[in-house]
Backbone:
Protein backbone atom coordinates (compact mmCIF):
# COMPACT_ATOMS: atom_id res chain seq x y z
CA UNK A 1 0.00 0.00 0.00
CA UNK A 2 2.82 2.41 0.88
CA UNK A 3 4.33 1.63 -2.51
CA UNK A 4 1.10 2.68 -4.30
CA UNK A 5 0.88 5.89 -2.28
CA UNK A 6 4.46 6.84 -3.06
CA UNK A 7 4.10 5.82 -6.71
CA UNK A 8 1.20 8.27 -7.15
CA UNK A 9 3.17 11.11 -5.54
CA UNK A 10 0.95 11.33 -2.46
CA UNK A 11 1.86 11.30 1.17
CA UNK A 12 0.61 8.93 3.80
CA UNK A 13 -2.63 10.18 5.30
CA UNK A 14 -3.50 12.50 2.41
CA UNK A 15 -6.95 11.98 0.92
CA UNK A 16 -6.98 11.13 -2.84
CA UNK A 17 -9.16 14.19 -3.56
CA UNK A 18 -6.54 16.39 -1.86
CA UNK A 19 -3.85 14.80 -4.02
CA UNK A 20 -5.80 15.56 -7.20
CA UNK A 21 -6.47 19.15 -6.05
CA UNK A 22 -2.77 19.68 -5.26
CA UNK A 23 -1.80 18.28 -8.67
CA UNK A 24 -4.18 20.64 -10.50
CA UNK A 25 -3.28 23.77 -8.53
CA UNK A 26 0.38 24.58 -8.10
CA UNK A 27 1.36 26.84 -5.20
CA UNK A 28 0.28 30.40 -5.93
CA UNK A 29 0.95 33.62 -4.07
CA UNK A 30 -1.88 34.91 -1.85
CA UNK A 31 -2.64 37.71 -4.34
CA UNK A 32 -3.40 35.19 -7.06
CA UNK A 33 -5.66 33.23 -4.72
CA UNK A 34 -7.77 36.33 -4.17
CA UNK A 35 -7.82 36.99 -7.93
CA UNK A 36 -9.41 33.52 -8.35
CA UNK A 37 -12.16 34.36 -5.86
CA UNK A 38 -15.64 33.44 -6.99
CA UNK A 39 -17.61 36.39 -8.44
CA UNK A 40 -20.45 35.76 -5.99
CA UNK A 41 -18.02 36.26 -3.07
CA UNK A 42 -16.81 39.51 -4.62
CA UNK A 43 -20.40 40.71 -5.06
CA UNK A 44 -21.20 39.61 -1.52
CA UNK A 45 -18.38 41.74 -0.11
CA UNK A 46 -19.69 44.80 -1.92
CA UNK A 47 -23.25 44.15 -0.74
CA UNK A 48 -22.06 43.72 2.86
CA UNK A 49 -20.06 46.97 2.84
CA UNK A 50 -22.42 49.21 0.91
CA UNK A 51 -25.57 47.56 2.26
CA UNK A 52 -24.25 48.38 5.73
CA UNK A 53 -23.65 51.95 4.58
CA UNK A 54 -27.23 52.29 3.30
CA UNK A 55 -28.76 50.77 6.45
CA UNK A 56 -26.74 52.91 8.86
CA UNK A 57 -27.28 56.12 6.88
CA UNK A 58 -31.01 55.47 6.48
CA UNK A 59 -31.51 54.69 10.16
CA UNK A 60 -29.41 57.74 11.02
CA UNK A 61 -31.52 60.00 8.81
CA UNK A 62 -34.72 58.68 10.42
CA UNK A 63 -33.41 59.72 13.84
CA UNK A 64 -34.16 63.33 12.85
CA UNK A 65 -37.89 62.58 12.81
CA UNK A 66 -40.13 62.95 15.87
CA UNK A 67 -41.48 59.45 15.21
CA UNK A 68 -38.04 57.79 15.49
CA UNK A 69 -36.99 59.95 18.45
CA UNK A 70 -40.11 58.79 20.31
CA UNK A 71 -39.53 55.16 19.27
CA UNK A 72 -36.00 54.98 20.67
CA UNK A 73 -36.86 56.91 23.85
CA UNK A 74 -37.91 53.84 25.91
CA UNK A 75 -34.83 51.94 24.78
CA UNK A 76 -32.47 54.67 25.94
CA UNK A 77 -34.50 55.62 29.03
CA UNK A 78 -34.23 52.03 30.38
CA UNK A 79 -30.50 51.74 29.68
CA UNK A 80 -28.18 52.30 32.65
CA UNK A 81 -25.43 53.04 30.14
CA UNK A 82 -27.27 55.77 28.24
CA UNK A 83 -30.27 57.05 30.21
CA UNK A 84 -28.16 59.80 31.80
CA UNK A 85 -27.88 61.44 28.36
CA UNK A 86 -31.48 62.64 28.78
CA UNK A 87 -30.22 64.84 31.65
CA UNK A 88 -28.11 66.69 29.07
CA UNK A 89 -30.12 66.48 25.84
CA UNK A 90 -33.81 66.43 24.99
CA UNK A 91 -35.37 63.37 23.37
CA UNK A 92 -35.17 64.97 19.90
CA UNK A 93 -31.64 66.34 20.41
CA UNK A 94 -30.27 62.98 21.55
CA UNK A 95 -31.93 61.19 18.63
CA UNK A 96 -30.47 63.74 16.20
CA UNK A 97 -27.01 63.38 17.78
CA UNK A 98 -27.15 59.60 17.39
CA UNK A 99 -28.42 60.03 13.83
CA UNK A 100 -25.53 62.34 13.01
CA UNK A 101 -23.03 59.83 14.39
CA UNK A 102 -24.65 57.08 12.32
CA UNK A 103 -24.53 59.13 9.13
CA UNK A 104 -20.87 60.03 9.73
CA UNK A 105 -20.06 56.34 10.33
CA UNK A 106 -21.84 55.37 7.10
CA UNK A 107 -20.00 57.96 5.02
CA UNK A 108 -16.64 56.93 6.46
CA UNK A 109 -17.30 53.22 5.83
CA UNK A 110 -18.15 54.08 2.20
CA UNK A 111 -14.75 55.77 1.75
CA UNK A 112 -12.83 52.45 1.83
CA UNK A 113 -11.51 52.85 -1.75
CA UNK A 114 -10.22 56.37 -1.04
CA UNK A 115 -9.09 56.00 2.56
CA UNK A 116 -9.05 52.63 4.31
CA UNK A 117 -7.97 54.40 7.50
CA UNK A 118 -11.08 56.63 7.56
CA UNK A 119 -13.21 53.63 6.66
CA UNK A 120 -11.77 51.78 9.67
CA UNK A 121 -12.75 54.72 11.90
CA UNK A 122 -16.31 54.58 10.52
CA UNK A 123 -16.46 50.83 11.08
CA UNK A 124 -15.27 51.25 14.68
CA UNK A 125 -17.98 53.87 15.22
CA UNK A 126 -20.59 51.49 13.80
CA UNK A 127 -19.38 48.70 16.09
CA UNK A 128 -19.83 50.94 19.14
CA UNK A 129 -23.29 52.02 17.96
CA UNK A 130 -24.39 48.41 17.40
CA UNK A 131 -23.00 47.28 20.76
CA UNK A 132 -25.02 50.07 22.36
CA UNK A 133 -28.15 48.95 20.56
CA UNK A 134 -27.57 45.29 21.45
CA UNK A 135 -27.20 46.25 25.11
CA UNK A 136 -30.89 47.23 25.01
CA UNK A 137 -31.71 43.52 24.70
CA UNK A 138 -30.73 43.20 28.36
CA UNK A 139 -32.20 46.44 29.71
CA UNK A 140 -35.47 47.06 27.89
CA UNK A 141 -38.69 45.70 29.39
CA UNK A 142 -40.74 43.58 26.98
CA UNK A 143 -37.83 42.11 25.02
CA UNK A 144 -39.04 38.59 25.70
CA UNK A 145 -42.52 37.36 24.89
CA UNK A 146 -44.96 35.25 26.93
CA UNK A 147 -42.76 32.31 27.90
CA UNK A 148 -39.59 34.34 28.49
CA UNK A 149 -36.17 33.73 27.01
CA UNK A 150 -35.47 32.56 24.27
CA UNK A 151 -38.84 33.69 22.87
CA UNK A 152 -38.30 37.28 21.75
CA UNK A 153 -41.08 39.78 21.21
CA UNK A 154 -41.33 41.30 17.75
CA UNK A 155 -40.80 44.77 19.19
CA UNK A 156 -38.37 45.43 20.72
CA UNK A 157 -36.78 41.93 20.93
CA UNK A 158 -36.51 40.82 17.31
CA UNK A 159 -36.04 44.42 16.21
CA UNK A 160 -32.91 44.68 18.39
CA UNK A 161 -31.55 41.22 17.60
CA UNK A 162 -30.97 42.10 13.94
CA UNK A 163 -28.14 44.35 15.09
CA UNK A 164 -26.10 41.23 15.80
CA UNK A 165 -25.77 40.71 12.03
CA UNK A 166 -25.05 44.40 11.49
CA UNK A 167 -22.36 44.17 14.19
CA UNK A 168 -20.80 41.26 12.29
CA UNK A 169 -20.83 43.27 9.06
CA UNK A 170 -19.19 46.23 10.80
CA UNK A 171 -16.52 43.94 12.28
CA UNK A 172 -15.83 42.59 8.80
CA UNK A 173 -15.59 46.09 7.26
CA UNK A 174 -13.21 47.08 10.07
CA UNK A 175 -10.96 44.09 9.39
CA UNK A 176 -11.11 44.65 5.64
CA UNK A 177 -10.20 48.32 6.02
CA UNK A 178 -7.40 47.62 8.49
CA UNK A 179 -6.00 45.00 6.11
CA UNK A 180 -5.96 47.56 3.28
CA UNK A 181 -3.99 50.17 5.22
CA UNK A 182 -0.45 50.32 3.88
CA UNK A 183 2.21 50.04 6.59
CA UNK A 184 4.24 53.18 7.08
CA UNK A 185 7.53 53.83 8.78
CA UNK A 186 7.63 56.14 11.78
CA UNK A 187 8.68 58.94 9.46
CA UNK A 188 5.39 58.60 7.60
CA UNK A 189 7.09 57.28 4.46
CA UNK A 190 5.79 53.93 3.21
CA UNK A 191 8.17 51.09 4.01
CA UNK A 192 9.89 49.39 1.12
CA UNK A 193 9.84 45.63 1.01
CA UNK A 194 13.18 43.98 1.45
CA UNK A 195 14.32 42.23 -1.67
CA UNK A 196 15.71 38.73 -1.38
CA UNK A 197 19.31 38.43 -2.48
Residues:
Amino acid sequence: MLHSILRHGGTAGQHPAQERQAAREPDRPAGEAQAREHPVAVAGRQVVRYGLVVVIAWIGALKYSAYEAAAIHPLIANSPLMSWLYNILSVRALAATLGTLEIIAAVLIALRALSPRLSAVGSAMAILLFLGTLSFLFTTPGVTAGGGFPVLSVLPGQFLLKDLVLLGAALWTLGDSLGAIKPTARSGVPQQRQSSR
